[in-house]
Write a structure and sequence with these properties.
Number of domains: 2
Oligomer: single chain
Distance between the termini: 56 Å
Shape: elongated
CATH topology of the largest domain: Hypothetical protein af1432
Order of helices and strands: HHHHHHHHHHHHHHHHHHHHEEHEHEHEEH
CATH superfamily of the largest domain: Hypothetical protein af1432
Length: about 500
């Protein structure tokens, strides 16, 4: 940095100091207790995201920190990153996730570590950091989708964009909350700037720009603070325009997703990103779902949480299968049709799959056939929430009464409650479990064990292409026999045809 540019920065900081709210003026002093904390955090983040950071050095940094090791392995083993095996070592996690993702995890961990320095208003700070991490994930995913040369740069930009807000929150929590209220209740950016200036003496981003200069943050980030104008709804033409469009657009999308904004504001924010990126509707929608999912996995690994208007997004837009198909009563006394009339049964099943118009009707046909035609007394279906693939949702069960507790027991968090089903979702082929009592204690939700009382069963992952979408459970609990190898063979016949049908509906076949 030249002496002339340093002088200009000093002059800029000196120019806003007299105007700044007196409670915030210490932020511009070298003696401020806030400076060493956030400045050190920024520097560590930039070091790990810089070109001098490589897979080997990152693996060493992570391995020396037990907490960070747990965070990285948790994310690496989440369904959001689609591992088909259990990852137990840091080098394996780094190679599986990719350098940019692991850098992002380490950078995020540094920011979250600073929560210990905020004795008051912990929840507000946790929410602010969680939103920054989600926005950073959106920015990185969008950059990778359009071939941006440095997706990690986008992650860093979106992550550090809120550093000025964190500084204000550290210095005076009440002023921070007042600024948050302005951004939530004021629609026009120009009016927002006026109200911020009345409150703290300068626009919020002007203070952020001064702090970014003091902390030697990247020039491209300082430019974002210097020119906070609205993003035009048009295709991005240059690399600087793309950088600004992705970072600011991702931040604004997360703001409306996690706030009381109307649905029209969410759609407008998405439209700005889609038109700017040039992505068509299908790939863009898939990217938005994947980004939210991966962002949730990231903040969950950091012990954070966030509210979202898309939190309760159902697994499919179609009507739930369990609401559209009648439930047979428990017990299946007739001989299995797959054994008495194998060819006719399979042909009728294939015809039913061909007639299915959506995911739910196809899966409903599959579950019903396993109960009615394959001889399984009880069948349960659980699907992943696409916006948060750590969450299972019990969707359909045949041969059980009462229905509601059986579905609830299939629902829950994979990482906290259903670790066994997490291992199933990483498989490709079905698993015959001879005896559930042989499974490691604590890997199954207690509610599931109490309601279903499983002895032996077949459990199989459901996939669209390589992506897990849920699992199927079936047993013969109402008869005296355990699930046998011949039952597994019968299951495979229905399972193979269903997998083909799922991929046909998804356009993969």
């Amino acid at each position: 940095m030249t002496s002339s540019s340093t002088a200009m920065e000093s002059a800029f900081i000196d120019s806003i100091r007299p105007r700044l709210h007196q409670k915030l003026r210490p932020l511009l002093d070298e003696s401020s207790s806030c400076l060493p904390i956030l400045q050190s955090t920024c520097q560590q983040i930039l070091n790990h995201m810089g070109p001098q950071s490589n897979a080997e050095t990152l693996a060493r940094v992570i391995s020396k920190d037990h907490g960070l090791t747990c965070k990285v392995l948790q994310v690496a083993n989440s369904i959001a990153y689609s591992p088909q095996q259990t990852i137990v070592s840091v080098p394996h996690a780094v190679s599986w996730l990719g350098l940019d993702t692991v850098r992002s995890l380490v950078a995020a961990a540094h920011l979250v570590e600073q929560l210990q320095h905020w004795p008051l208003r912990q929840q507000e700070f946790r929410t602010l950091i969680a939103r920054s991490l989600i926005a950073a994930t959106y920015a990185s995913e969008l950059g990778m989708a359009i071939g941006y040369p440095q997706p990690g740069q986008l992650f860093t930009g979106a992550l550090l964009y809120s550093i000025g807000d964190l500084a204000i929150a550290y210095q005076d929590p009440d002023l921070f909350l007042a600024l948050q209220a302005i951004s939530k209740t004021t629609k026009r950016p120009s009016e927002c700037v006026l109200q911020e200036t009345r409150l703290i003496g300068v626009p919020r981003l002007t203070l952020a720009q001064a702090l970014a200069h003091m902390w030697k943050l990247p020039d491209d980030l300082i430019e974002l603070f210097r020119h906070p104008e609205e993003q035009p709804i048009a295709h991005w033409q240059s690399r600087p325009h793309t950088y600004r469009g992705i970072v600011v657009g991702s931040i604004r999308l997360v703001e409306v997703l996690t706030g009381p904004a109307p649905r029209t504001a969410v759609e407008e924010a998405k439209k700005t990103l889609q038109l700017g990126s040039g992505l068509s509707s299908g790939p863009f929608t898939d990217l938005m779902i994947r980004a939210m999912d991966r962002g949730r996995q990231l903040i969950r690994s950091m012990g954070l949480a966030i509210d979202s208007s898309e939190e309760a997004m159902p697994p499919s837009r179609a009507q739930p299968a369990d609401e559209s198909i009648p439930h047979p009563s428990a017990g299946n006394e007739q001989p299995a049709l797959i054994r008495t009339k194998p060819l006719e049964t399979l042909q009728a099943f294939q015809d039913s799959l061909q007639a299915a118009k959506d995911l739910n009707s196809l899966l409903g046909t599959f579950v019903q056939a396993l109960h009615r035609d394959a001889g399984f007394d009880r069948v349960g279906l659980a699907l992943l929430n696409p916006g948060d693939s750590d969450l299972l949702v019990g969707r359909l069960a045949f041969g059980v009464t009462p229905l509601a507790p059986h579905l609830r027991s299939l629902s829950g968090s994979l990482s906290r409650e259903h670790q066994f089903f997490l291992t199933i979702l990483k498989r490709v082929d079905p698993l015959l479990v001879p005896n559930f009592s042989d499974l490691v204690a604590g890997t199954l939700k207690q509610d599931f064990l109490e309601v279903w009382k499983p002895t032996s069963a077949i459990v199989a992952p459901l996939r669209v292409g390589a992506r897990p979408i849920g699992f199927i459970y079936c047993d013969r609990a109402t008869s005296t026999q355990p699930v046998l190898p011949q039952d597994y063979q019968a299951f495979q016949l229905f399972f193979a045809q269903t997998t083909l049908g799922l991929n046909r509906l998804a356009g993969i076949l």
